[in-house]
Amino acid sequence: xxxxxxxxxxxxxxxxxxxxxxxxxxxxxxxxxxxxxxxxxxxxxxxxxxxxxxxxxxxxxxxxxxxxxxxxxxxxxxxxxxxxxxxxxxxxxxxxxxxxxxxxxxxxxxxxxxxxxxxxxxxxxxxxxxxxxxxxxxxxxxxxxxxxxxxxxxxxxxxxxxxxx
Amino acid sequence: xxxxxxxxxxxxxxxxxxxxxxxxxxxxxxxxxxxxxxxxxxxxxxxxxxxxxxxxxxxxxxxxxxxxxxxxxxxxxxxxxxxxxxxxxxxxxxxxxxxxxxxxxxxxxxxxxxxxxxxxxxxxxxxxxxxxxxxxxxxxxxxxxxxxxxxxxxxxxxxxxxxxxxxxxxxxxxxxxxxxxxxxxxxxxxxxxxxxxxxxxxxxxxxxxxxxxxxxxxxxxxxxxxxxxxxxxxxxxxxxxxxxxxxxxxxxxxxxxxxxxxxxxxxxxxxxxxxxxxxxxxxxxxxxxxxxxxxxxxxxxxxxxxxxxxxxxxxxxxxxxxxxxxxxxxxxxxxxxxxxxxxxxxxxxxxxxxxxxxxxxxxxxxxxxxxxxxxxxxxxxxxxxxxxxxxxxxxxxxxxxxxxxxxxxxxxxxxxxxx
Lengths: 165, 419
Known about the structure:
The structure holds 2 protein chains of 2 kinds. By secondary structure, chain A is an alpha/beta fold. Chain A has helices spanning about 15-20, 30-35, 45-50, 70-80, 90-100, 105-110, 145-150, 155-165, and strands at about 1-10, 55-60, 80-85, 105, 120, 125-130, 135-140. By secondary structure, chain B is α/β, with parallel strands linked by helices. Chain B contains 14 helices and 18 strands. Chain B is globular. The mean pLDDT of chain B is about 100. At the A-B interface, helix 5 and helix 8 of A face helix 2, helix 3 and helix 5 of B.
């Protein structure tokens, strides 16, 4: 699978309150949540400026804080194709695999991508290409169990199989 | 050689031994969700075509975040929990009037016990490590899967050991210990790891302080926080436990990826400054920081001992004319006990508001939202941008004693400064 789009850069420790503030959590409707994606972040106008397919590129510990799955849901529904970060907070990481937002870890890619650069993520080859600067970076390999989950179609498909539903 | 975390996980996946990094499928003693996270779990549960929960006695649904319902949309979400609970005859649904803030309510009612494996669609599920349980926050989909199968997959975490020595000073407790620790290691200092708290200070620390410490393990990125159970644990759980419990202890030669020692003698009350829980300073180094609001409550500091601590500080004083003080007992039992001990009178006489249990202001939900430019001192757990209201407001985190003293002073300060 390949993802191509322009990069939006974010700093370290972007928390889930910045991704989707709690004041909007009286609904779980993905379209409603997406309207407010990144509203309390360093780029509050993100939703006005981004285009479907764009890539979020963030420093360490992306998605820290609350367990709200509304955060990856908002990002996915906003049309972001994938998120690249130096590292992800644990619950956010787990949620992304469970609900199907593609995420990639790469320290060198985050350092080698500037805001607005055109980026291509080649998930199968495990590389990220900065098409603006013509540089290629490696992605940290996805743990084998997470690959199994993805191959099964996510956690619920895996669970249906296990429970014989 | 295993840590307490590894031992509990091993016992729940039918293995004699598990090693850090190993993937396991563990049996769950309890699955938890609240009015924000459960609606997605319920949708996923139904979309999967599931007809039955794995055990109607082991699923706790607690409307506490936006309850009592703050608006129509929140009322709809709470109603989803209610209807699902009735449909599946869940014994652990807590209606308004019986409910409390989930992580205060479940240990208090003996619904989580030492040795348990618990997942909850709330990041502060790690609180129950204070009892000697393995508990961790997950998302709504994990909870949906857990409600169906009664199992969850885990990577056995590596463990970090935190040893606390010395003697705690007056008005210094669990909140100060965990803030100091997060200030040391940072908000991702324990990412994916178990945080095991030990040492002479912990062994003397009452249960409410232990629960406060483990509650904030997630603020350092930890998978779980945990404290070996002992006589203090036994005394706490013996009269409450609704199920059999088991004490696990780390082997003497268990392996830790990091061991940190702290001498807490002389440590001042600690404050986390905006906008991350790692921005921690001793209170004397803060300078003069005026406040508009003081909040005492939450899953971190809403237990009876926390309410007593704030009441002791504020008794006979008045809340500063420019400050709103909001006190929220975490459960109905805490509320009732506060009335019985005359603590509610103390707060009302001081000019503070005293409310029914809710998470409310902690996450900027309701019951104390900040306007642009306003500042709060709060006994809650997060001070991210916009956490308690407007993105241009600020939250400082502290113990109940500091929050109460600050409410009187109109600025962040210590109980010793009150005349």
